[in-house]
Amino acid sequence: MMDQYQKARLRMVQEQLLSRDIVDQRVLKTMEEVPRHWFVDDAMRVRAYGDHPLPIGAGQTISQPYIVASMTQSLRLKGDETVLEIGTGSGYQAAVLSRLCRQVYTVERVNSLLVSARKVFDKLRYYNIQAKFDDGTLGWPEKGPFDAIIVTAGGPEIPEPLVEQLSENGRLIIPVGDQHVQELQLLEKKDGRVTVTTLAGVRFVNLVGKYGWSR
Ligand code: SAH
């Protein structure tokens, strides 16, 4: 898609992703294409491609481009997967995922954010995203199992329902820690067994819900 922000997007990919450890060509190409500035307020558009998170209202944030790329890359998507996201927020992460797999399900607990994210999905005609208002720590059992699950808010532990809804050979990525700093944990299910690898240190907003923080 050609637009006035395309240069900024190319620069973002060069300077923030390629220069670090993003090597998945499909992820790089997708982030060159998805118009990130559509997912932030008008007043913030000029900063949409900067190397930082941005506020999106309701005390929440859209993650830094590199974090979106890194978490997406860790899911190793090939194209035919069903993916669950917890924490729709602006919708940007879901939009990126939707270009890389068959179907995205995303759950958000702040209704105003969900409503604006849905509008952007429609405007972009990203029709393989289904979004609902709920506590995402419960997952979305009717739509599972999922080949990949991504949680974009930080919790005290990995919510058990999400582990249950992950398919065999599935990957789940989630920031786990206290309410200030977390580390990204990558959980994989193989032969019915679960392994957890710890990746980078990160800072996310709170995962609030039955299997998250109380506020
Ligand atoms: N993926 C988003 C990031 C948004 S920040 C993006 O690309 O913009 C994290 C989001 O998680 C916030 O919108 C917050 O409201 C939401 N959240 C926190 N706890 C949640 C829960 N239990 N279920 C669903 N969403 C939750």
From TrEMBL:
Catalytic residues (UniProt): 63
Catalytic activity line of the entry: [protein]-L-isoaspartate + S-adenosyl-L-methionine = [protein]-L-isoaspartate alpha-methyl ester + S-adenosyl-L-homocysteine
Compartmental location: Cytoplasm
GO terms of biological process kind: methylation; protein repair
Entry GO CC: cytoplasm
InterPro entries: PCMT, SAM-dependent_MTases_sf
Primary localization class, coarse: cytoplasm
Keyword annotations of the record: Cytoplasm, Methyltransferase, S-adenosyl-L-methionine, Transferase
Pfam families reported for this sequence: PCMT
Family, similarity comment: Belongs to the methyltransferase superfamily. L-isoaspartyl/D-aspartyl protein methyltransferase family.
PANTHER family documented for this protein: PROTEIN-L-ISOASPARTATE O-METHYLTRANSFERASE, PROTEIN-L-ISOASPARTATE(D-ASPARTATE) O-METHYLTRANSFERASE
Function: Catalyzes the methyl esterification of L-isoaspartyl residues in peptides and proteins that result from spontaneous decomposition of normal L-aspartyl and L-asparaginyl residues. It plays a role in the repair and/or degradation of damaged proteins.
Stated name of the protein: Protein-L-isoaspartate O-methyltransferase
Lineage: Bacteria, Pseudomonadati, Thermodesulfobacteriota, Desulfobulbia, Desulfobulbales
Protein's gene: pcm
